[in-house]
Amino acid sequence: MTVNRKFGIDNFARYVTVAFMGCGVAWCGFSGLTQEKQIGDVADDFQLINVMTDETFRLSDLEGSIVVLDFFFYWCSICRGNSAVAEKQINQYYRDLGGNPEGLPVVLVGLEKDDSGMRSGETLFFAERTGLELVVDDSDHVALNQFFSPRRGEGTNNSDFVVLNGVPNSPSHQLWEIVYTRSFRPSVSELREAIDSIQAPVAAPEPEPAVPAVLSHPKYVDGRFQFRVEGTLNQSATVEVSTDTVQWNRLKEIVFGDTATIVIDENSFAEDLRFYRVVTN
Q1: Which among 68, 83, 173, 270 is placed 20 to 30 Å from 15, CA to CA?
Q2: Which of these, 54, 22, 37, lies nearest to 163 by C-alpha position?
Q3: Which of 41, 13, 50, 44 is nearest to 184 (CA)?
Q4: How far apart are CA 138 and CA 130, in angstroms?
């Protein structure tokens, strides 16, 4: 039995033909699927093999980016159409824009759900046909089962999409928070809305520049020179004294407060030639 099903124009595939192949009305267990982790939960790191390079891939390697996970079966025509559109309308789209509206980079990761594709080379052919640039082997469903329950059945002919925030210190989402999940009919607008909702970290305000220390003109009071010193609140400084401006000696260590600090030179006399300066620490 073959069914032609028409999607809305915003869906990845406008027309999809699916052969039930004896799966019955339950779509091989797809109906009524439940998620293991929910939107708002934090995804666990996972380690898989990059199909392109045979090197180890870790989700945490993409920290600093918004990550879109595209789970597919290499033999699935729906998946092929979805992945091709995701590569063009998500990966390439945000690359051309220089990131989402906050300037955050977006990375699309394809995850193969069927181990026979790796053995036969069909997964690489799938990547070539769809344009996917990064594909990893999730045939054991290490990553998939974080987001979608294995109870739905493994013969399901569909794509699964997840959007994760990989940007540390985002004011809108936790690191590796699940922002979006959808199976079978994810739309470009939904994916972009999720991606665009992730905000960049707020830059720490620049510290105010230190105010240069101010030393008032010394006065001779009660047989000693004294003067006032002012500077940036809580900044420490050293008051030094000299008789020739060549050799300087420490007179007093101070920490600036809300009011001026009075410094008295106990070793000074009216007939002395004295120079003073403040060195901030």
Answers
A1: 68
A2: 37
A3: 13
A4: 18
| Residue 32 in tokens | 């009524």
Q: What is the mean pLDDT of each run of 10 residues along the chain (281 residues)?
A: 34 36 30 64 96 95 98 92 96 97 97 81 93 95 89 66 97 97 87 97 78 80 89 90 91 90 88 87 79
How many helices and strands, by DSSP H and E, does the chain display? 6, 16
Q: Looking at domain 2-196, does it have CATH number 3.40.30.10? A: yes
Residue 272 region by backbone torsions, left for phi larger than 0, else alpha for psi between -120 and 50, else beta: beta
pLDDT in tens, 159-210: 899 999 999 999 999 999 999 999 877 789 999 999 999 999 988 787 777 6
Angstrom CA distances, 222 to 5, 226, 239, 265, 266, stand at 100, 9, 20, 11, 10
Q: What is the DSSP string of 15-81?
A: EEEEE-TT-GGGTTTTTT---SS-TTSBPPP-EEEETTT--EEEGGGGTTSEEEEEEE-TT-HHHHH
